Amino acid sequence: MGPRRRWRPRRCDSFGTATNLLIPSSEAGKGDARKLASTPAPSGQSPSSAATPNSSRTVLSAADIDRALTRIAYEILEANKGSANLLLLGIPRRGFPLAQRLAAKLAATDPSIDPAAITGQLDVTMFRDDLAHQPTRAPQRTELPATGIDGKVVVLVDDVLYSGRTIRAALDALVDLGRPQAVRLAVLVDRGHRELPIRADHVGKNLPTSSSEKVRVRLAEIDGPGTADEVVIEAGA
Amino acid sequence: MRHLLDTESLGRDNAIAILDTAQEMSAVGEREVKKLPALRGRTVVNLFFEDSTRTRISFEAAAKRLSADVINFSAKGSSVSKGESLKDTAQTLEAMSADAVVIRHWASGAPARLATSGWIDAAVINAGDGTHAHPTQALLDAFTMRTHWARLTGTPSVGGDLAGMRVLIVGDVLHSRVARSNVWLLRTLGARVTLVAPPTLLPVGVEHWPCEVSYDLDATLEAGVDAVMMLRVQAERMKASFFPSAREYARRWGFDDARLARLDALALKDTIVMHPGPMNRGLEISSGAADSPRSTVLDQVRNGVSVRMAALYLLLSGDMRAAPTPALPAFAQPAAKDHP
What we know:
Number of domains of chain A: 1
CATH superfamily of the largest domain in chain B: Aspartate/ornithine carbamoyltransferase
Helix content of chain B: 25-40%
Order of helices and strands of chain A: EHEHEEHEEEHE
Largest sheet of chain A: 5 strands, parallel
Largest interface: A-B, 35 and 33 residues
CATH architecture of chain A: 3-Layer(aba) Sandwich
Strand order of the largest sheet of chain A: 3-2-4-5-6
Distance between the termini of chain B: 29 Å
Helix content of chain A: 10-25%
Strand content of chain B: 5-15%
Distance between the termini of chain A: 55 Å
Strand content of chain A: 15-25%
Shape of chain A: globular
CATH topology of the largest domain in chain B: Rossmann fold
Structural class of chain A: alpha/beta
Strand order of the largest sheet of chain B: 7-6-5-8-9
Number of helices of chain A: 4
CATH topology of chain A: Rossmann fold
Oligomer: heterodimer
Structural class of chain B: alpha/beta
Number of helices of chain B: 11
Radius of gyration of chain A: 17 Å
CATH architecture of the largest domain in chain B: 3-Layer(aba) Sandwich
Shape of chain B: globular
């Protein structure tokens, strides 16, 4: 085999801006329809006063999310025995800001880390197993760090782990981009109900849920600057 | 069932959705593994009743990059030359369970007939019919212009349109389906289009199109322009003499070296020169212009694959069994307008 040509990331002009999405679905290009990670809340409206017909409760506040991410960042460094060869790939849409926050926390503990250089975004839309059975999803941008993923320890970052199908698609997408030395998985919330033999290495919070409930994650980067970070469980219809 | 038959019925949201999807698809062409599994197991038939180089190759590359199976059909060397009708050909394809039919036909309206007659169940993509429409060419032209326009205005191209862009479409408008599709799509995206052609090469009723018309290329260049699209002089469709001589046409309506230099003199340093191909070098465009840094001819070909991937993906990836998805409701067009 000759030398492998690296995939070069394209210059990005719309990195993670929710306003650019044209398919109005809150989860366009992303996970299970059942996962329903979030719909943007009207900014300024406090979540407790949100008039939803179903009861909803906040399971993680902004401070909880921050603490969980701090712990995950330390776990990542511990499992990797340092910061060498580490890459964080967020799965759009909410996995990417989480990956950026994790990278910032890694950089805070290890000044040799450049957070922008180890963070990327991995779109899995085209690798999903339900493309033919769901409404059309608009693909999102895949943006890898300039180093590529060959020989790296890739940590996939997502907001909610549910059936595991998004992660399966992500593993397929990674294979087409290169050969990482290892792939790990960090999620903010593991809500159970796995349909595939997939397990997260780093979990912010294990959240026992009924499959009729909806877990919504709100992040300021995606849902607008006025939104408070939180994870909410809503009772199903 | 959804189809892509023309740009007149293509809404702004759908057009931008196609362009945005194409933007993401274009990254695939730069990867080590230039393939996505999105259309695995689907069959795309390229049904070409008319000669084509880049459109057919582009559609084939697009379908293969999405992992679809591709069947190429050209009328030459097939049973069409034995007198088989479009209906029988289409139903043969249906029996082979094609999921999408990409059709180029010399008759205006043939794709619409295929899409609405109930002969087949597959998605129909018009790859050029007679002098009616060539939607994927217009979309790739708009994609090329949008990339350029976003760079000029400093805005992100994803989600953007062409508001305020001044576009000239110059040459054989009468025979050009590219011009027709572009006029409608560029109008939808907010660009200001001016057609420039000899009066004999403008169709009847052009005054009702959403564009301006001029007979003088130099005057419209003076007025300022952001993109000049040169059209091919379609000698194979010309049954009468539309201009006195090729030399006169080249002097008055061709984009020659003098006009290329004129752009610099007019301080239009960001104006691009486009051509859908194949080019008649020395007639509607000089070699100097075609090979200049302003020329986007090869960008257009490159973008063509991305745009066609986007169209195939959006038409084929939705729910196989159910009715149109909310994302792309307005593709179907009941009847095509036939131009003389």
